[in-house]
Write a structure and sequence with these properties.
Layout (H helix, E strand, L loop, with lengths): L4 E4 L9 H16 L3 E6 L9 H14 L8 E6 L4 H13 L3 E4 L3 H11 L20 E4 L5 E6 L3 E6 L7 E3 L7 H11 L4 E5 L6 H10 L6 E5 L2 E2 L15 H6 L4 H9 L14 H7 L10 E2 L2 H14 L2 H12 L12 H11 L8 H10 L7 H8 L2 H15 L6 H15 L3 H13 L7 H8 L1 H10 L9
Parallel strand pairs: 1-2, 2-3, 9-10, 11-12
Antiparallel strand pairs: 4-5, 5-8, 6-7
Helix pairs in contact: 3-5, 5-6, 8-10, 11-12, 12-13, 12-18, 15-16, 15-17, 16-17, 16-18
């Protein structure tokens, strides 16, 4: 496919970070809207930390977000380790052209000389020694005098004084490439024209631009996007914060909700609402509209987004989305689950769910042989005599009902409430606890209708409240 070529280049060293997911989505939106290509490159040269399952985790997480190989804009995955020979060859080419030189000073040598001379960093001591390759010798880039200007689609023109950049290492003493060299060679090999990445890479950019130019190629278009921070405004950390995309997926966050939320971290769709579908966000997204400030990864706001998306689902869509959580690890047996009952209750369940996993706990009473009572709810509802008397009145009224509809069930309890001088919420509490086991849940009268007359009356008859004088 012709057009600009973007890349996303994660390292398979752990779970997929939400910050990486945001960067991937922005690259994906640009590749699609600009008629270009999204290249996935796995930077797998850290053999001590890389694991095959992490690589598959990246691919699966991207697919969950809607980024995958079944789209003509997608290319890859490529693996950095497959290009080791090109990395070394590029280092040799830089040496041959005079843009790099070999240095035999070890880190300990550099530290000792700095201590003796009162300097910091590497001072180019081996620049003019004419050393060739040898055991333990590193290849360093010869940083030119002057300034390096980075043209950034997010941050504008960023100027770096080359005097503040030491001659950096391209090849280690064992001839293995450093990240800076490997990254540039991979981008060259894969014909990358746009590099959109986190702002933490900005200090590396003048060095990489120097390498591009020394190898005889114009640098790509750069764009450095703001990092994500927690509520203390500290950069999100794997050790401290909940950053693994897979965790949110497994907890029942909807992919479209996560995509929508991540897209808005540092950017806002047009139209005044942050809730937007993918086609709109893809069409609207421009790097020039991205904020410069760090973006707050707000868990409460993410939950609100997810709840909004859950409420958008049809009953059938909600059932299918919840199915993995409904049939595994719940209080009721899978063979007791009734799709019809769930679908009838779905509109009343959805407003009470932050994640898909919440649904099972809201409707479990429908599929249990008998409710699981919360002792605190029993104590609160039946500690005195009123609860027992209201329950007895409710049972008598419901046994006499000619039809079992939510409307009739509510009317019967409203009459009890009026006779006793109570609000409806107070009057319905004993029946709610007797039928569901809890003091909170979906609308009681709709739940009673779905549960059915016989099962509901059985629960009203057989609950044994704490302190019931007749028990």
């Amino acid at each position: 496919m012709t057009g600009p070529r973007f890349r996303f280049a994660p390292s398979p060293t752990g779970f997929f970070h939400v910050g990486g997911a945001r960067t991937a989505l922005w690259n994906w939106a640009l590749a699609r809207s600009e008629g270009g290509t999204f290249v996935l490159r796995i930077e797998d040269t850290d053999e001590a930390r890389n694991q095959p399952e992490w690589t598959q985790g990246i691919i699966d997480a991207l697919a969950w977000l809607g980024i995958g190989a079944d789209d003509p804009h997608f290319e890859g995955p490529y693996f950095q380790s497959d290009y080791a020979e090109q990395h070394v060859a590029a280092g040799q080419a830089l040496f041959d052209s005079g843009h790099a030189y070999y240095c035999d000073m070890t880190p300990a040598d550099v530290e000792a000389r700095n201590k003796a001379e009162g300097n910091q960093g590497y001072q180019g001591w081996s620049r003019d020694l004419g050393l060739g390759p040898g055991p333990g010798r590193v290849l360093r880039f010869r940083v030119p005098v002057g300034h390096t200007v980075v043209h950034d689609r997010v941050r504008g023109e960023v100027v770096f004084d080359n005097a503040t950049i030491e001659d950096f290492v391209l090849l280690r003493g064992n001839s293995s490439p450093m990240f800076l060299l490997a990254n540039v060679v991979d981008d060259l090999t894969m014909r990358i024209t746009q590099v959109v990445r986190a702002e933490e890479h900005l200090p590396n950019t003048p060095k990489q631009q120097m390498i591009w130019e020394a190898l005889g190629h114009p640098a790509p278009v750069w764009a450095h996007v703001p990092v994500l921070v927690n509520e203390q405004r500290k950069k999100l950390s794997k050790r401290r914060d909940k950053v693994a995309l897979e965790m949110y997926r497994d907890e029942g966050y909807l992919a479209p909700a996560m995509v929508n939320y991540l897209m808005t971290l540092g950017w806002t769709p047009k139209g005044g609402s942050e809730i937007a579908d993918w086609p709109q966000m893809e069409a609207d997204f421009l790097l020039e509209d991205v904020n410069h400030s760090p973006a707050f990864f707000d868990l409460k706001k993410l939950a609100a987004f997810n709840g909004e998306y859950i409420r958008m689902l049809s009953a059938e869509q909600f059932l299918e989305a919840c199915r993995p959580w409904l049939l595994a690890g719940t209080a009721f047996r899978a063979d007791r689950f009734d799709e019809r009952m769930f679908l009838e209750m779905a509109p009343h369940i959805q407003p009470r769910c932050v994640t898909l996993a919440d649904a099972a706990g809201v409707v479990d009473f429908l599929f249990l042989e008998s409710p699981v009572f919360d002792d605190a709810s029993l104590q609160k509802t039946f500690a005195g005599t009123d609860g027992h008397e209201i329950l007895a009145d409710t049972l008598a009224a419901y046994e006499a009902l000619p039809s079992w509809t939510a409307t009739d069930l509510k009317a019967a309890l409203e009459a009890i409430a009026e006779r006793r001088g109570l609000k409806l919420g107070k009057a319905q509490a004993p029946a709610r606890v007797a039928v569901t086991g809890r003091t909170v849940g979906p609308p009681l009268f709709e739940a009673l209708e779905v549960l059915g007359r016989e099962r509901s009356l059985e629960r009203l008859r057989h609950v044994q409240p704490v302190g019931d004088p007749s028990a």
